[in-house]
Amino acid sequence: MRIALIHIAQETNDFNPVLTTLEDYEAFGIFEGAETLERLRGLGQVGGHLQAVEDSGLTVETVPIIRAWAVAGGRISRDAFDYFQGKIRAGLEAALAQGGLDGLALQLHGACAAEGIDDVEGEQAALCREILGLDVPIVLGLDHHANITQKTIDNCDAFVGHRTQPHDTFDTGVIGTKLLLKIVSEKLRPTTAWRKIPLVSHQEQFLTSKGPMQVWFDRARALEADPRVLQASNYPMQPWLDVAEGGWSTIVVTNNDQALAEQLADELADLCWSLRDEFQVREAVSIDDAVRMADAETQGIVVISDTGDTVFGGAAGDSNLILEAMIRLNIQSRALVPLISPDAARILTEAGEGATVTLMLGGDAAPEFFTPLEVTGTVRTVGGGIIEIVDGHQSEVNLGQAVIFDVGPITLMITELRGLAGNLPELYEAMGVEPRDYKIAVVKTASNFQYFAPITSRVIRADTSGPGQSDVFTLPWKRIPRPVYPLEPVEDWRAVSSQPGSGASA
Ligand SMILES: [Zn+2]
User: Fold this and answer.
1) What are the structural domains, with CATH classification, of the chain?
2) How many whole angstroms from 233 Cα to the centroid of ligand 1?
3) Tens of pLDDT along 138-172?
4) Taking the model in full, what pTM does it have?
5) From ligand 1's centre to the CA of 58, what distance in Å?
6) Number of neighbours of residue 27 by Cβ within 10 angstroms
């Protein structure tokens, strides 16, 4: 059995105006052919695919086409989109010519938009289908913050979403390929029903381990206990994707039982809708309160979540709002603050270690949210480059130029490339800073606290503005279909009346 493997992923934030380019993907590694498998064994969806193949006991040849991943950010450039379309076409055509294909493990994000293209994954899936025809099954693995579109549904046979937030991408790869091998070897007939739910929400209730998201995701797992159900996956779209078909979704795939798929898709959609107000509950406190509370704690590390500048949600990492409050409030505790700024990284690198420098910090990428702040400090360390990390789907990250810059009790790590801001303690360690020496660490994420968790005493969410802010009402939405709850009141919505597709439900 020959199975092609494609992994191309980026999560787009439409409120970050900085384009994501091929160079951004290159900073995280674009791999083709055999290198894909060598580099990613044990990592992410590609690693999960390899594990599922190994565990299957079947004779499977994986034909790796391309793996490209970039951290969340602004829309991808048209060049990057065209480049990947070219690689998909050439790779699949060559694979067909060299011995045919029995299936495609397609691993995309689902919330990627490009310059002039709202639905990148729909276009990619359609291209794969065009080349492979109807007889080669395509199983699509997605981030569950995906925006599902009709084009995506029409061009794939089955769908697998991440089961947890924080995501276990390896698990998604295992499940997706296991399902694909089953479809091919047992000649299953996957049958899909899906519902679009007119809902957006901030990410404060996005953890699947508690609250309404747990209720919704647990129900999907319970439905999968029925052997007729191949997959039930929920998609609470990440809240900064402003696209023509934007909104939450749920997908149910059965083995050739359309009526059952329709019924269960209704059930999952109606359950989600019944929880709509619980998804909107906000826990974040004002910036000043967050800084004062952290400063007053007796021990650390107190993690302050900069929700508005979440780099894992596609913000640019250039917010100085918490830094400004820390300086103005004259905090006494030692604090770690990350900042992504190519200009500042260059200026401080050129100034050199030991130099005292006054410069403007922040607002490089999203000036409508942040005003540059004048700061004086001392360059402690100049470094950067490629840093080895322990992460679910990545073994290294390129920081570009990076500088440790001390401003009173505040230690800034200023990096040139998007990287992962200061969300992983080992990035500081690689720059010679021991996070345990600090009481406070600002992280540029609103959900992914797992990296700091072993050394965290408390997490405080700061209600910061920015491209990832919790206040979804004041974001400049332009393209998302209206009405959408809670931007407008939507009173009488029911899943059964909203079916995009066959409408076979009673
Ligand atoms: Zn996600």
Assistant:
1) 1-188 (3.40.50.2300), 190-282 (3.30.310), 287-469 (no CATH)
2) 13
3) 999 999 999 999 999 999 999 999 999 999 999 99
4) 0.91
5) 31
6) 21
